[in-house]
Amino acid sequence: MAWLSSKRDNTTTAGEDERQATTDKDSAATGDAAPIVADMITPSMDKSYERMGEPTGAAPFELADLKEDGGAAPAGVAEAPRTYRTYKRRWFGLMQLALLNIIVSWDWLTFAPVSKSAAAYYGVSLTSINWLSTAFMLSFPVIAPVTIRILHWGPKPSIMTSAALTLVGNWIRYAGSYKVEPRGGNYGVVMFGQILTGLAQPFVLAAPTRYSDMWFTTRGRVGTTALMSLANPLGAALGQLIVPELVAEGKSEQVSRMVLYVSIISSVAAIPAFFIPAAPPTPVAPSSEHPRPSLLASLRTVSRSREVGILLIAFAIYVGLFNNISTLLSQMMKPYGFSEDEAGIGGGILIIVGLVASAIVSPVLDRTKTFVMAIKCLVPVNAVAYLIFIWMPATREIVGPYVILALIGATGFSLVPCALELLTELSYPISPEVTSTMAWAGGQLLGAIFILIEGALVEGKDADPPENLHRGLVFQAVMAMVVIPLVILLGMFGREEKIKLRRVKSDELVRTQSVV
Prior knowledge:
Keywords: Membrane, Transmembrane, Transmembrane helix. This protein is 66% helix and 2% strand. The protein is an all-alpha fold. The chain has a single domain, classed as Growth Hormone, Chain: A (Up-down Bundle), CATH 1.20.1250.20. Strands 1-2 form a two-stranded antiparallel sheet. Helix 3 (90-108) packs parallel to helix 6 and helix 3 (90-108) runs antiparallel to helix 7 (187-205). It is globular. The two termini are 24 Å apart.
């Protein structure tokens, strides 16, 4: 099928005009919501696609209202515009994706909030319990290439894969925890189940940008990406707050019951994933139907972009820091006299305040599209908050840690959808799951590395206080500060063109070229 623009010099027969009028009428009758009017794909887009290393001899998709080769409206007659629609059914898939992100994150922090009780139950050290979280995170980069391939097929296969792994992994964990005794669990079986739940995470954590690109327009993508992505740390918050309550008074025999409850909740949440719609009946925006380059061509393009590289590094470091502080917060605070419950509340504050802040910031970014400015403002504030947190546990007053944790959450969580959407914009027409998976894989890998480093930085039993993580707090503050000069460089030194929003411009170009 040849590419057509909004104007053509060649003529068409009366029969072709009649067929086109019928097609346009049928197209206008489909959809659940208000239409979005735009023109057809332009030749310039075909050229950009060819530059990405893909053949253009035949288009890889069909547009319902394109005429056959050689067809065009007679001179002086306006062509009918391309009609795009959004569908109400998209909300079912969105909520299911958000729900699975909550569950896999809760699975990640099943044991960290009650690390001492879990260590006693399974008869292992605290370091071994930390490895349950670390192994979960390391599963992400291992399965990342498979994630990108499956997401290339569409969000639904990826979501179903995650649901299946979540179901199997949770019940294997319970199989290693079923004895209701002070000591009775099988750590090896639990680790195997934990790795399976870790393998489930990439398929839903990397999916929000792909899902929003397929089902939503530029007027709602930031907000929907935020809702689906930040459901993941919401699950971590639920784990921090609920798990200690399920292990009453830190009794190790309650660990078995806690794992059972988490398995039941995970099963209920995972089953609806097999019934979500696979794709909208028609594209919702011009950018949604643009041909995507192959995976190898996409990786070559990403490797050549300095701006995409900076964003990937910054995102990975801050996600790694969040994973680190979420996992080790109890061990950061307990040496200074804080209880596991107080540390759990601190983790909840970190996440809940972050979710509220992101809910406020995301709609603003949806309207203004000021992604670069937001990143340049939020990153320094977040880094300074990590710097101040070095001295907060040593105050032995709970207010200080809570305030700084709230600041870390507010700025860090607002960064997540902003960075993910900017990555998609700067790398367009590369499919969104490529940069999204790379960003999250880097964050999970660095999170695991940071946890291992801070585990080695724990002070000895003769320190004041014993086994404190002061050196670990310094380390995470240094890593946060390193990112500041990187993001400040975005768009500087004559590279303003490199931070233009390519996907937004593509949609606007098609709309402005419409002939109504």
